[in-house]
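Troubleshooting: if your tokenizer reports a length mismatch, compare your output against this known-good record of 800 residues.
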Amino acid sequence: MLIFRRVFAAGVWLALSLAGGSVRAQVTSELTPPVAQSSTDVPYPQGADGDAAVVLELVVEKDGSVSSATVVEGTEPFAGQARAAALTWRFVPAQRGDAPVAARIRAQVAFHRDEEPPAASPTPVVAPSATAGAARVAPSVPPPPTPPMEVTVVGARREIGQTTLSKGDVREMPGAFGDAFRAIEALPGVTPLASGLPYFFIRGAPPNNAGYFVDGIRIPLLFHLGLGQSVIHPGLVDHVDFFPSAAPARYGGYAGGIIAGQTREPATAWHGEANLRLVDAGTLLEAPFADGRGTALVAGRYGYPGPVISLATDDMKIGYWDYQARATWKLGERDTIGIFAFGSHDYLATRSPSGDPEAAKEMLEQFVSDFHRVDLRYDHALSDGRMRLALTGGYDSQGAEPTYMTNRSLGIRLEIEQKLTEGVRFRGGADALVEHYGMRITRQGPFEPVVPHSADPPPTNLTGGMYSDFVWRVTPRVELVPGARFAVFASSRHDEAPSTGRTRRVVPAVDPRLSARVGLLPGIAWLTTLGLAHQYPSLRVGNVPAPMLSVPGFPFGTRTLQTAAQASQGVELALPAELVLTATGFYSRFWGLTDLSASCFQHSDQMPMRGVPFVPPYVCPSNQPVRGKAYGLELLLRRPLTKRLSGWLSYTLSRTTRRSRFLTPDGTEDVANVPSEFDRTHVLNAILGYDLGRRWRVGGRLLFQTGTPYSHLDGSLAVPPYNAFRNPAFYRVDFRLEKRWRLGQDGSVAFVLEGQNVTLSKEFSSLGMDCEGMGDGPETCKQSTIGPLTIPSVGVEAFF
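Known-good structure output:
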């Protein structure tokens, strides 16, 4: 894990000088310089040390955006960090009289390690240019004396309804292990299947409805099984965007939340990272070549948790690894080509529960996953925008004994962003993805085929779509983003009967989106998001936990797309001490939802029977679509975790319901609207971190969540009132301590002690039941417990 650094807001002073040496006589209107709209931080570069200053030359457009940032003075990694941050800043534009004009300004970014930034010294002076209509820098003419002015610049424009986790915040979050994706769990609206397992309910949508993206590339999993590290090295991740609902139009095909990771830009100087922990080791190396025209990066992680797990049990084996490789080459000033390849492997096996001593020696594969992606990309800088064309090939293999599924995919995507007018920016594109599924079955289950008829033979899917939206700044305080996605979901498969041949189904879908931000008062904004989303039905395959193995497609003509209507209303309030408070109310409605986490019962000869054991929800063979809804209130109060005293408080009050089917003791079926098996009324995350000085930092996190609902049982069958009772509440405490030392001129090395669930708390779960007396007398069942799921981490990290 990276060492917590003292990260200060970089003091930014804007120094402007006369254009062309003098003010032209014909220009008489007063010119005012650009003014920052609000404050933000420029994070201290990872692995850097000491103080530094970077001078940038910025072009601030008429709409207040920064279209160009050039490093005038400064060394890496500070120069690259400052330039990347500057491109996201927004200003009230320079004005000549009442008319906004473009301006060229200089900004000095001062990085300080252990003390507050010094007082501002440069002074801004603006003079107009009659020919260009902008302020220009003329170093040869000294500026006249004016009172000093200090400006702290705003951060990047966020999508409405989006929460962004920066690398600096994530690295310092206790229990996240420096992993940007894993830190999602601490956000409001997010509930894991079980504490410590990285499979999330997001605003009532089950884990199989969440979409995971890396640089716009769809991937099946974001986390390694067991210890929950992400499949992308954290040093490669610049930030993670989280959309709990109504994501921008460029994200389609999912009826739940979107978690999108963005890799950082290629580095301009050689650098590396390495870490060694009790359970895994990882490294990242990146270097430019050919005088900076090209860059090359390799990264990876290898897990060896076996020795640690063997201390507690010899009935389990876990292993994992991942890799990433990237290369880029500049064809010219505006054109770049690149290749990005990455992949992941997970393995989990447990000893056979059979009473036969010989059979008990066998280790059964509970989950095996491999995926690989190769992305070829071409980037072109437009006059005031960008374009990317990419081709992606993929291979996935997932399963558990005895059922294994493969997926070979090929996709293409086009992304375009272009400024149209001073107040309107266009974003659009198109994508298509072909997925061919295969299946391997080593044996059949004791009750019925492991793979139901609905998923065998597996389908071939073709998904295509076009999307566009417009970021429209109606007034300086009002921003609207209307958009839509037009998609086609097509699925086909060979029928078992030769006479019927191949069955095909094509379903079109339209996903409208609308978001708005209205500035009510300085520091107060009203946020609105509305959207409709569609997704393939999810077909469970084999006896594998719900979020892990499913096939999307249309097995029968009667099955429809999963559909979600999503809406939210929120208020964002900027408070003193760099605190930001967000309060959001949300409502989601679901139709045709295939909730693979919903509980059901095993059928024998297609008939429910009393005395048949309760089967955990993840082996339900029916895949019945359901209707449901979710609504609630989310609160998030945060201060950057990079501050000396930092804090984070997130709270969710919500309710998720499903129209579910239940089997009664007399063999009939009952239907009722009940709370979802994983509905939790209250979820609270509280984080506190403090810089002790001398490069020591300590932090803690408290997670509290109320229990999941359950029904009283008659034997193993639920009886009314369904899901009317609650399991006990659960809490856990995470802890992090680090000490960092300087390594050479620009590097550092650190010792990190971190633990998740250091309280060793157990959790009651809806993932299954503990039953006794089956076949030997009266059967009794009770809610099962999980845990304690605890993850210790002791390791050393280095940045060089």
